[in-house]
Predict the structure.
Amino acid sequence: MSDKPATLSSEERDRRVLELWERVVEVEGRLIPTGLHVFGRASDEQECADLLRMVASFDRPECGARALTDLVAEGLGLGTYDSLVGDKSEDGWRRRERVDKIVRRSVEIFLREGSEHAARLLEAEARVSAEESGRVFALLSKIREQLRTSGELDGLVRSLRGEYVEPGPGADIVQNPSVLPTGRNTHAVNPYAVPSRPAYARAERVVSALLERHRAERGRYPRSMALVLWGLDNIKTQGEGVAQALWLLGVRPVRDGMNRVSGVEAIPVERLGRPRVDVLMTVSGIFRDLFGATMLLLDKAVRCVAELEEPAELNPVRANVEGQVKADGCSFDEAALRVFSNAPGSYGTNVNFMVTDSQWESADSLGDLFVTRKCFAYGRDRAGIALEGREARGALARALARVEATCQNIDSFEIGITDVDHYFEYLGGVSKAVERHAQARPAIYLSDALTRDARVRSLEEVVRLETRAKTLNPKWYEGMLRHGFRGVAEIESHVTNTFGWSATADAVDGWVYDEVARTYVLDTEMLERLRCLNPHSARSLVARLLEAEGRGFWEAEAEVVERLREIFNGLEDQIEGVA
Amino acid sequence: MKTTILYVGSSLLAPLRQAEEEINRRHRTGLRVAAHNFGAPLSENEWREVERDLCESEVVFVIHVTDGENAARLVPLLRRFESKHRAVVVINCMPELMRRTRMGKLRFGSATEERGDEGKANASGKGRGEGRARRLVKSVGSWMGEQARGRRRGVSSRHAQYLKLVERMPSLLRFVPGAGRLRDVKNYLYLFCYFLQPTPVNIRSMLLYALKHYAGDGRLSKIEVPPPETAPAVGIYHPDAPAIFETFDAYRRWYERRAKRAKTPPLVPSNTVGFLLMRTNVVSGTRKHYDGLIRAVEREGLAALPVISTFMDNRDACSRFFVEGGLSNDDGRGAARSRVSQIVSLTGFSFVGGPAMNDSEAAVEFLRGLKRPLRSAVSLDVQTVEAWRESWTGLNPVQAGMQVAIPEIDGATEPFVFGGMTAEGVEPVALEERCRRVARRLRRWNRLQNAERGEIKIALVLFCFPPNKGNIGTAADLDVFPSVQEILCRLRAEGYAVEVPPDADRLREMLLGGNSAAFGAVANVAYRMGVEEYLRLCPYAADIENEWGAAPGHVNTFGRELLIQGVRLGNVFVAVQPTFGYEGDPMRLLMSRGGAPHHGFAALYTYLEKIFRADAVVHTGTHGALEFMPGKQVGLSGKCWPDRLIGELPHVYIYSVNNPSEGSIARRRSYAGLVSYLTPPIEDAGLYRDLASLKEVLLAYRQSADEGEREQLYAVIEEKAAALHFAGG
């Protein structure tokens, strides 16, 4: 490492600096939760500047507001903001920073002095008309107003009086400001509306970014992928995940005369401009329940592609189905199974339980458990009979064996891959299952639409990003610790969920554990705080670090391990004593 | 002679069968009526039957088919058999099917409905009757398509036009000549009139009329087909009443007389459930499922006000019958004049918009004014009771989408299956056990509306996952103890008899500490339920023993007792929900499907219902285990565990607004009304420690023009980046 600088040309050096710059500001600008909500309490005025700026960074067609970032970029004559974001040169960065600075200041002035002053600033510095900015600030004012009060306790009291509780959409505020006010009866979506037209359009971008990234790293497009589909993001995005699956297969949704998505149509492969991708869909029990019609649609899409007369190199679905029929002597129906979920009426992979409770010997058993829980096929066979979760372990195993890459969407700032145990049980679980059956670890991707540059990242990148932006970030953990007991439990849960990525995907660098240990356990002052606030969770955290070391995910120094053991014993004693 | 009817729903089969029998008895035509429910996609075997029937039929009716897949497959079949069919009558279907109408010269096209004759008619300017008839048939023919294109704002005015049409059609038709160019137009409108009022007599007439004019059978050419019977467009139905009531006053008089005579409950607003019924089922006499539910509700001591739904827009029926003096959207006093305590929709459609679209904004605005909750129960109209019973899925995708997902967008809750078609039957039946469950839950909700706050008992259930003391109060993004404290304070202010601890920390200590150590429990043990008591009170204990062995088992137990963890605070019980119980059990984790909750889990809900006698359960935060217990996915039966556990208790779930998916599972599988909570504050992550200084050096590098300085800075950068593990990729 140390002898490298001397060998670099100044251009290479500049490029490396800008790469690092991008990664540092990526952490800096990542929105993170900085606390927990208390039911019925209004949110803190001080905390909403970043949120509002992010809200203002997206077009809001429902209220006629365009993104401030675009308005400013265009006002300055710099073209679209997306093109600025795509330009990674020094000049590109400077232009982007110029826009960001004006947007940031305008939101600050809006909060301090009101819409008019903010509009004047934008007019003066970026020739944004007051009419355009006015629509944005009207939305921001409304959000701010709604955040000042809380209707949650009223909603609860009304509900307990047996009154009507208004329905409302579900999402985070950036995604959909109309989730405010809260205190309402959150609803899902009409499954026949999925995927919506905008979702289908957005999915094309994500899919091409995904495929290009894979090709850049591995030299060719993946022939077969596994997608994890959840209800969570597909409700909020009106089916972007579903649309991604359709794009990978190379089909488009067809709406019937009632405007319902009820069929699919293949996009000619020459128009697609690339080979189709065979897609294995591992679907959550929740998606299965909420999107019954969509399950059938996805299955229909696979069958439609499998029947196209196209050469094997352009249509791996057909090639794989035909190959399997020949090799195994199975039916077309069996060979075309691609949509898998839990047994009907059951939920989850249990991989998270097994990891959290340390009930596993080798990582293989986690992959096997995923298959056991998810080997139920959905769709309809050629006779038109719904499969309704037919057990098909062999079919899943064969599909897994072909997979080269796995992918899942992240959809909100609060629910990231280390915030809940469900990402590692699904994306980690399916990746481990692939590794088991394909004898090779797949490339693992996450795609998110949280910022303007919809990004496809590797799992390892996201683990590092989450670790830097949340787990190791004083702004994050101090925010959690303000909530005392519950905050310690949150920290412990992040560490366990990070550990889950070691267990299922070996995707956590050793330094992550070093830094977690240093931040929370080896820092005596911090340890003392955790111990006083919630000794139970503090103990679990130390135990998890020891488990990471014991299972070989972390090559800790001997003294560190020794110290952790002592601390663990001390906590045990304290808890036993307390008890 | 044969006719095939492709229909959707549960109201047509019975009158069709009656008609077949009656026509054959009277006219000896040897008529065969083939009928297929086209509500959900058909299997290949079913298609083969349809194909055979279509091939053999002279006259074909296609009614209310809006399933895209079925339509896509049906269109080419109709084309294939075009030469065999003497008439194809398509009513209220999607546009591509409407265009398959073939009656003499009548064709529904995109622009003209009758090829060739339009120009002549206009040129000759034959009277107003003719123009009107053409406009009528055009609007009838394009109605469904218009709906589907759904220009929101227009729903109610288009709907009003439709209703007007229903009422005026027969009189309009009198002016249309029955012969000549307009013959087929008139015939279509006549058939449409019969269809609009699907009484058994009208359905028979509809068949006869079509056969007489198009089947080309001499035996029928001379018969008289009676003109359409009329039935009121709206009204109040009751299984015990001799007829439909056109006004609330008439219904009230009858209901009160009956109440005195039969000792049935009086019709007072606080005690009356308002039902919305499908007009077609009421008119066609296929209403046993309605009767079953109405009687079940009356057996629970509630009065019933079952009104005929106005199909496209229930606001009409609701304001006409459910509100004294009617309700306009903006008057804000609907609640005070409401005649019902709850609205139970049995239509299976959205509140405003009907089958083709939903205008939830209009629905919400209306219901907000009325303040009465909307429940939506499901009749198995495109699936049989047997199929539902056997299936782990429960409702098929069509029913789950139309009858659950869409009503939810209007704020509907309690998606119970209450009745439906059986495999052999011709009309829907009530599912007695489900009806009783719905009725009792409605009664419980009524108690929440009417009882003194001081009498009401509430269980607040907290989660603890993974099960250790550190995790008590698990909930996504929510600080649970201060939240519970806020709730307790508010409940006290509302008049509930709750003992509020001094602060959230104290509350937590009461729950974590107490006697928990003595039992090795996660939380304070509020009640110890002996095995005998448990077996006596929990009706499902035997089923649990099949899975978990003899009670009490080893989860949440102490010796021979089941431990109910929580603290009692006056009329509020703060409980801790046990977890699934198999987290630490490798053998159970490996089972591909779950069997049952463990005894300790069932014991908590048994305790809440039978010993604490809760009036409502509030689950506090996203999310617990109850709603993920084994059972059907949606449209649960009495054998499904979430249904058994929540039982008759009204259920409110405090749920993160950012999780509409799992929240919907809670609403569908455990009948929860959700109350959303805000996501936590979010801010830029910012930079800290060495990350912050790395950025400074990077910035200095970018701003420096001095090559020597840049080289030096770069060395620092590499060093810092390596220390921060940014090296490499």
The CA atoms of residues 306 and 318 of chain A lie 4 Å apart. Chain A touches chain B through 163 residues (CB under 8 Å). Chain A has three domains: 31-148, 201-458, 472-578.
